[in-house]
Amino acid sequence: MKLTLDIWRQKSANAEGKMVSYEVDDISPDMSFLEMLDVLNERLLEKGEDSVAFDHDCREGICGMCSLMINGMPHGPERATTTCQLHMRKFHDGQRITIEPWRASSFPVVKDLAVDRSAFDRIVQKGGFISANTGNAPDANAIPIPKKDADIAMDAAACIGCGACVAVCKNSSAMLFVAAKASHFGHLPQGQPERYERVIKMVEQADAEGFGSCSNTYDCEAACPKEISVRHIARLNRDYLRASLFGE
Amino acid sequence: MNLDSKIPSGPLAEKWTKHKFDMKLVNPANKRKYTIIVVGTGLAGASAAATLAELGYKVLAFTYHDSPRRAHSIAAQGGINAAKNYQNDGDSVYRLFYDTVKGGDFRSREANVHRLAEVSANIIDQCVAQGVPFAREYGGYLSNRSFGGAQVSRTFYARGQTGQQLLLGTYAQLSKMTSNGGVTLFNRKEMLDLVLVNGHARGIVTRDLITGKVESFAGDAVLLCTGGYSNVFYLSTNAKACNVTAAYRAYKHGAGFANPCYTQIHPTCIPVSGDHQSKLTLMSESLRNDGRIWAPKKAGDQRSPDQIPENERDYYLERKYPSFGNLSPRDIASRSAKEACDSGHGVGPGGRGVYLDFADAIKRLGQKVIEERYGNLFEMYERITGENPYRVPMRIYPAPHYTMGGLWVDYNLMSNVPGLHVLGEANFSDHGANRLGASALMQGLADGYFVIPYTLGHYLATSGQGKVSADAPEFKQAEQEASERINKLMNIRGKRTPTSFHRELGLLMWHKCGMARNEKGLQEALDKIPAIREEFWKNLFIPGSGSEFNQSLELAGRVADFLEFAEVLCTDALHRNESCGGHFREEYQTADGEAKRNDADFTYAAVWEYAGEGKRPVLNKEPLQFDNVSLSVRSYK
Predict the structure, then answer these.
(1) Which residues of B are less than 8 Å from A191 in CB distance?
(2) CB contact under 8 A, A121 and B137
């Protein structure tokens, strides 16, 4: 395959960026999208030019490190697929592909396509945990958890923290990310003691980081590589309202 | 080299309890006076950092990722073992201990393994308390499945994402301790060197991956939780950034590197599709609960799998190992796949693959059940290969996956460098020559949650070392050396990329020191590695500068260390004149191709000592003593 890539190049956080076009040929349809970028980078380096910086690590769709807006879609056109699991057979010969970093001011660009997502860590640090010090735990089977609840908790816990939900949102809202964490713990008996405090604190921190509000367009669910449902946002809103009204 | 394993006296089952009482404690008010440096935030690192902070220590935690949640523990799919015996099927602490020692081909320490089995049950309790959403039965109780090398169901799991859920559990605990000030977290900072003061490990030198700033941090002890070295093979199931640098730097400062030749090749990975391949993807071993592995009976059979009738298929694991069948341990399953392909029975491009077939399971259980058990794995397979495994059998081939070898540690998880502790995959302690499935997660969390919080206190209470600051000359010198090394890499200004060297080394290692090894091949590798290294230091190209975000520079530093470490690995593989676990020497096999151990000469951990630039490492031995299990031929027939 032969492709034309329009890629966002930006030397550092404070430098001005611009789109640069590259032609790449000899691309195999069996390559992953990142392997296609590897090929481009190896060729750039062989010419003595700087390679395109992008974040990646596990390359099996679970670490959440890879990102990229591909033709305007986070993680590209395939549903439920991270960029590292997207393969070139989903594109056609001669295609022009636009590649940009996540678009959100709370995720500032580090270099080229790599961004800083530490805002997510700070949200989790405010309340995305159950305070259970090591050694406190009762026997694991002491508290039965209905399979249905455990399954919903697992659905929510599948979030990989990649930030696609923020990148796609016109408000750059982190609501799906916050809701997934809150809903994961909120569905488990172990998560009840801190349930409402957790919601208030995480939402406050998301606001402080500059993420926008949710206006229910559900783009986040469509863009999420793990298909986290917006139902979790409804639960988050319910818990938030209850906590705000009744001071729980 | 002092290799006192410090195994407590007394009966096996009482050693840990006795040791916990015998160790010195640090009084709660004094704990905050100690600073502990934790490098790596995977299961071992994050659990250790969080737990030590809960106890009151001041913890500095470092990761080269943008967030601790990215660590490669996250990619473990299948599960975590624990001797809970919830299934009432005959499991016990002793059985988990025995299975692990046997699975490790009798090359691990009895006392360490028994402790691991003892605390395994606490791990599950702890994780459930943190909100890890393990799979459950309709009654609300925890569900289990079976894994290779065991005849009981003791594996706890969270769909095919167990590693992710356990890591997010430790990440949550780490985050909690970060918000209350117990842990100071440093993202995107890579450890470049270890700093010793007065012979004790007292700090590290790091490079900030965004600004390029080289700086150092001082503390009272250093914990390396930096994972394994499978990426020495370039193509492995490890994440791209996984590397040996932290462990190798410690080795160069005198820490012993134990059993580097014990590398695990995982039997069920997606085969290589072409030269562009950047990494390999594992398909969880749990698939072997329901999938049947086979190859065509006729060599070179090109028919599509649905055209090959039942009686022309060789379900070779079921045939050769009837009692364990498709759930034979990893080393055995991998070698059998290689054997099938080497003899021309392989399938797919280049004949490097065998089938993992679910047709029978789908017929027996229905597609819905299979979907529920393995849905996400099937989807992943289809995304990568473009084939639907509900209709066409999966093609699989072995790939480097885990390394049992690592820095030598005593019973307290301390290396022979005082103060330097090593946890998780980075140490060598529990898996012997082969790790059983679902035991890596168990060991990482055991080390971090339930071992180091006890043993570290004992070191601090007895080490008698004063305070040091990062302004001490040892730190300044280490910083300067790290900077000089970066400059040296930057100034080569040659033609070749770091990746091209990594690929070249990896290919050599895979062919000469991979699934099967022999003396001639290892000698060849040992001859060729220095040549690649020489070319690297003459002809490497890195763009830009050292004082910016520079992914080529990061990679070059890691490849430089792999290029030295590979020699240690091959040296170990060459010296171990036996086959055991993941180390298969072709010269040492039985008539039917099984690994042949040499207990008389090799019942020891080989601990390699750095001898200086350009010198062969020096061999030290820690004899392994088996008082409870008798060494036997490991049979899964």
Answers:
(1) 131
(2) no
What DSSP state is assigned to residue B235? Answer: S
Total number of domains in chain B: 2
Could you give the CA distance from residue B436 to residue B634 in angstroms, rounded to a whole number?
A: 13
A32 touches chain B (CB under 8 A): yes
Listing DSSP states for A102-169 in one string gives ---TTS-EEETTEE--HHHHHHHHHH-S----TT----TTSS---HHHHHHHHHHHT-----HHHHH-
Q: Which of residues 53-112 of A touch B (CB under 8 A)?
A: 53, 55-65, 78, 80-81, 85-87, 89, 110-111
Which residues on A lie below 8 Å from B544 (Cβ)? 50
Which CATH number does the domain housing residue B578 bear?
1.20.58.100
Assess if residue B243 is contained within a domain: no
Q: Give which of B189, B276, B376 to mutate to test A binding, by max A Cβ within 10 Å.
A: B276
CB nearest to B136's CB, from A138, A145, A190: A145
User: Could you tell me if B498 and B591 lie in one domain?
Assistant: yes
Co-location of B383 and B485 in the same domain: no
Tell me chain A's radius of gyration from C-alpha atoms.
20
User: Based on the domain organization, do B391 and B484 belong to the same domain?
Assistant: no
The single-letter DSSP state of residue B208 is: E
Same domain, B498 and B392: no
- The CATH number assigned to the domain holding B315 equals 3.90.700.10
Q: What whole-number distance in Å separates Cα of residue A85 and Cα of residue A80?
A: 10
Residues of B in contact with A55 (CB under 8 A): 66
Question: In chain B, which residue's Cα lies nearest the Cα of A185?
Answer: B131
- Answer with the one of B400, B418, B440 that is the final residue of a domain: B400
Question: How close are the terminal C-alpha atoms of chain A, in Å?
Answer: 58
Q: How far apart are CA A149 and CA B12, in angstroms?
A: 41
Q: A62 to chain B: which residues are within 8 Å by CB?
A: 74-75, 161, 163-164
Strand ranges of the sheet holding B257-258, from the earlier edge strand across to the other edge = B406-407, B257-258, B604-609, B618-623
Q: ipTM > 0.95?
A: yes
State the pairing for strand pair A114-115/A109-111: antiparallel
- What is A118-246's CATH number, 3.30.230.80, 3.40.50.300, 3.40.30.10, 1.10.1060.10? 1.10.1060.10
Q: Are the Cβ atoms of A57 and B543 closer than 8 angstroms? A: no
**Per the domain annotation, does B256 fall within a domain?**
no
Domain that includes residue B576, residue range? 479-602
Among candidate residues A139, A165, A184, the one with its CA nearest the CA of residue A225: A165
Q: How far is B76 from chain A (nearest CA, A)?
A: 10
* Strands A96-100 and A69-70, bridge-based pairing: antiparallel
The CATH code of the domain at A3-111 is 3.10.20.30
Domains of chain A by residue range? 3-111, 118-246
Q: Are B394 and B504 within one domain?
A: no
Q: How far is A27 from chain B (nearest CA, A)?
A: 9
Question: Any bridge partners for residue A9, and if so which?
Answer: A18
Whole-angstrom Cα distance, residue B165 to residue A156?
11
Does a structural domain hold residue B513? yes
DSSP for residue B126: H
Q: DSSP letter at B448?
A: I
As annotated, the active-site residues of B are 330
Same domain assignment for residues B483 and B387: no
In tens digits, what is the pLDDT along chain A, a chain of 248 residues? 999 999 999 999 999 999 999 999 999 999 999 999 999 999 999 999 999 999 999 999 999 999 999 999 999 999 999 999 999 999 999 999 999 999 899 999 999 999 999 999 999 999 999 999 999 899 999 999 999 999 999 999 999 999 999 999 999 999 999 999 999 999 999 999 999 999 999 999 999 999 999 999 999 999 999 999 999 999 999 999 999 998 76
In contact, A8 and A112? CB cutoff 8 Å: yes
Do the domain assignments include residue B103?
Answer: no
